[in-house]
From TrEMBL:
Chloroplast as UniProt keyword: no
GO molecular function term, any single one: aspartate kinase activity
Gene3D superfamilies from the UniProt entry: Acetylglutamate kinase-like, Aspartokinase, catalytic domain
Species name: Eragrostis curvula
Transmembrane segments: none
Annotated ranges, domain Aspartate/glutamate/uridylate kinase: 49-307
GO process terms (BP): homoserine biosynthetic process; lysine biosynthetic process via diaminopimelate; threonine biosynthetic process
A GO cellular component entry from the record: cytosol
Family: Belongs to the aspartokinase family.
Protein name, UniProt field: Aspartate/glutamate/uridylate kinase domain-containing protein
Keywords: Amino-acid biosynthesis, Threonine biosynthesis
PROSITE patterns: ASPARTOKINASE
A Pfam family the protein falls into: AA_kinase
Lineage of producing organism: Eukaryota, Viridiplantae, Streptophyta, Embryophyta, Tracheophyta
Top-level taxon of origin: Eukaryota
Amino acid sequence: MRASSCKNTRLVAVRCQGETVAQVKAEKHDATALAPARGYQEKAATGFTVVMKFGGSSVASAQLMRDAAERILNFPDEKPVVVVSAMAETTDNLLLAGEKAVSCGAPQVSEIHELSVIKELHLGTIDDLGLDRFIISDLLYQLEQLLKGIAMMKELTPRTRDYLVSFGECMSTRIFAAYLNKIGMKARQYDAFDIGFITTDDFTNADILEVTYPNVAKRLHGDWMDYPAIPIVTGFLGKGTKSGAVTTLGRGGSDLTAVTIGKALGLREMQVWKDVDGMFTYVPNIYANLTPAPYLTSDESAELAYFRAQVCFVAPY
């Protein structure tokens, strides 16, 4: 595992090659190594070379989205698949909005503070990037209608929670893809649950099923052959195998989305872009004057994950 930082934007790319990721995540998914997936090797011919994942704090504003786009431009020889999380704090605000909707009437939903914050953040970002608001207008309408439904039912079930939080990734990816297209980079937005991410029906902490790999490879490969464009994929989300409902993958789910895509396409590298200057042995927000480690073994990474380092994780069963 190798880390390299970009000081100008406080982003760091963590490149995980070979069996490294498999060992870090082995407790939940044995099939997450970036070696070619058995039976899917032919799909690597799509031309994709790397998966690049941007977390919520890396796309938390219009300027940070510009910075993320610049990171992609800085690798002109790469043909990436890009995985994007919800804009920072959006997931928490969606959950708070849902909890408040339970205790208020449907007419009061539009007055929920967190809903206003979500609208202001995303519409403000769109305006700053010079995009059209219609990109997410339907999603914002659906979000408000969902909250009104929660208010009427007076209940926020795990299934509804997953659908609720999915709006964050669905909006951020649409904005980012639209911006890439605006600056001349051909991009296509995807919701993970619509391109073959099939999971168990364990809402809020679903497991990805094996059928996902050929599904994703077939969809991305086919679309690339029809019209080459950078896939911008929602992290964290899937579709329940029996329910057909939106599911979420739990803590670190967007990283798992990225690794799964890399596995499906037979890629050897995944880049996780963070808003810190590297991999630290302590939390950099708490301890000052830390020096990032330029290299980590898989065992060292797993140990950091075990002790709750936020830059990597081991997902329990």
